[in-house]
Amino acid sequence: MEASGTRRAVRREFLRRHAPFVLSLAAGMALWEIVGRHTSAAFMVPLSATLARVVSMVASGELVRQFLDSAALFITGFALALVVGAPLGLLLARLRALRIAVEPYVMILYATPMVALIPFILSMMGFGFAPKVLVVFLFAVFPVLYNTVEGARSIKPELIEVARSFRSSEWALWRDVMVPYTLPFTMTGVRQAVGRGLVGMVAAEFFLSSTGLGQIIMAASQNFDTAGVFASILVIGLIGVALMRLGLHVEARFARWRR
Amino acid sequence: MSELAIRPVEIATARSAAGAAVPRLIAGLAILLLWEGVVRASAPAYVAKPSGIIAAIPSVIVRPEFLDATAQTLLAVAEGLAIALAFGTVIGLAMGRSTVAERALRHYVNGFYAVPMIVVLPLVSLWFGYTGGARLATIVFAALFSIIVNVADGAKSASQDYLEVARSFRSGRLRTIVDIVLPSATPYFLAGLRLAAGRALIGAVVAEFFTAIGGLGFFILYQSRTYHHDEAFVGVLLLAAFGVSFELAVVWSTRRWLPWYRRDEAAE
Questions:
Q1: Is the CB of B48 inside 8 Å of chain A's CB atoms?
Q2: Nearest CB to A116: which of B43, B229, B236?
Q3: Nearest CA-CA distance, residue A191 and chain B, Å
C-alpha cells in the first residue's frame, strides 16, 4: 500500500517535471508536420519527410562518413586552440607586465569576426586540410585566451602575496593559486569555443574545400533538394545542441569553486 | 554621487591604465614589426602586410564601392539587430515572467541558440533568394536567441521582495514590469546585446560571402580573390573596429548607468 503510494508520488513528480517538455516538443513537431504539408515542397518539407531523409542518409553510409570527416576537422582545430590558448592565457596570468601590454590586442582579436579572414586563408593556403584546421583554430582560440586572461585579472593580489609570504615555491603558487583560480574562467572560454568552433567548422566546409557535413548541405541546396537541406540542418543542429550541453556540463563542473 | 560608486579597484585600474599605455604601444609595434618581417621574409608579394595596408587605407576609404559596401552592411546589421531586439525582448520577458511560456519555449530557444547559425544560409537563400532579405534573415537568426536567453534570465532575476511589495500595493502588471522587472533585467539585456551585436556582424559577413550580394563581406572576398590583399584587409580592420566598438560601448554604458553591476560572464 505504502510502496504503491510512493511509486505514484514518484510518477507524479516525473510527470510534473517532464510533461511540459514532452508536450511542447510534440506541439512543435506537429506544427512542423502541418506547415510542411501545406507549403510548397520547394520551400519546406514536413518533419516526416525530413526524418525519412535522415534515415536514408544514415543507411547509405554517407552521413557517418561525412560526420567523421567533420569530426576530425573540429577536434583537430579545437584541440590546437586549447593547447595554445590555455597555457598562453596562464602565462599571461603570471607575467603581469606582459599581460598588461598585450591585453587590448587579445580583446580586439576576440571581438573581430574571424570569418572575415577566410578569403585570405583561401588564397594563401588553398584547399587542403590545414587551412580548414586554421579556420576552426582561429574561431576557437580567442574565447579560451580571452576568458583565461579575464580570470587572471580577477586573481586577488592578496592571494599571491599571502602565498609569497609563506615562501610558496613558484610551482606551488601555480598549482594552488593560479590554476585553480583561472580554470573556471578558462572553462567558460572552452564552452564559448565549442560554439564558435562549430561555426568555424561549417564555415570552413562552406567556403574552403567542400567536405563533411557542410558538403551535404551545400550539395543539397545546389540541387534544390529541400528535404536534404532540412535533414542536414537538423543533424548539425542536434550536434550543436549536444556539444553545447556537454560544454555547459564541463563548465558547471569547474565552476563549483568559483564564487 | 558617482564618485562614491567607484570602488578602489577601479581607481587602481584607472591608474594602471595610464601607466600601461607605453608597454601597450611597444607590444603593438612589436606585433606589427613581426608581421611585416615574416611576410617580407617568407610570403608571396600579394600577402597583406602592415606597410601595404597603411598605404592602401587613404585610397580605399574614399572609393565609392567601399563606402557603399560599408553602408550596406551596417544598415543591414542595424536593421537586423532592431528586429531581434524588439522580438527578443518581448519573448524574453514573457519567458521570464510566465512559467507556461518558459516551459513551452525554453527548449526551442536553447536549441536554436546552439545551432551554428551559419547552417541556415542555404535555407534562407532558398526562401529569400540571393537578396538582402537572406542577409537580414541570417542576421536576425544570429542575434535573436542570445537576446531572448539573456532577457529571460534578467526578468527572472527580479527580486522576489520587490515583486511582493508591488503586489501588496496593488501595482498593475505593466507597471510592475516597467518599474521592477525591466530595471533588474537591464544588465542582462546589455550582456545579451553585446553578444548579439558580435553574432550579427558575423551573420552579415557570412551571408555576404554566401550570396555575393555586396557589402563589406563581399568587398573583402572580391578584393582578396583578385589578389588585392592589402585593400581587402582595410575591410577587415573596419569590421574589427565595429566589433570592438560594440564591445566597448556596452562595457562603458554598463559602467556609466549600472555602476553597481559587475559584468557577469554571460552565456554565449
A1: yes
A2: B236
A3: 8
CA dist., res. B123 & res. B130, Å (int)? 11
Q: Using CB atoms, which residue from B27, B119, B229 is nearest to A202?
A: B119
Contact B219, B233 (CB under 8 A): no
In tens digits, chain B (268 residues) has pLDDT values of: 333 334 444 445 555 556 778 888 998 999 999 999 998 888 888 888 898 899 888 888 889 999 999 999 999 999 999 999 999 999 998 998 888 888 888 889 988 998 999 999 999 988 888 888 999 999 999 999 999 999 998 888 887 888 888 888 888 878 888 888 888 888 888 888 988 999 999 999 999 999 888 889 999 999 988 888 899 999 999 999 998 998 888 888 888 877 766 544 443 3
Report whether B197 contacts B88 (CB < 8 A): no
State the Rg of chain B over Cα.
22
Q: What is the sign of the dihedral through the CA atoms of A224, A227, A232 and A233?
A: positive
Query: Which residues in chain A have Cβ-Cβ distances shorter than 8 Å to B117?
Result: 199
The residue length of chain B stands at 268
The per-residue DSSP string of A135-180 comes to HHHHHHHHHHHHHHHHHHHTS-HHHHHHHHHTT--HHHHIIIIIHH
Residue showing cell 542595424: B78
Compute the radius of gyration of chain A from its Cα atoms.
24
Residue A201 CB contacts under 8 Å (≥ 6 apart), including other chains:
A70, A73, A74, A77, A132, A135, A136, A212, A214, B116
User: Which 167-226 residues of chain B touch chain A by CB within 8 A?
Assistant: 198, 201-202, 205-206, 209-210, 216-217, 220-221, 224-225
What ipTM goes with this model? 0.84
Contact call for residues A202 and A213 (beta carbons, < 8 A) = yes
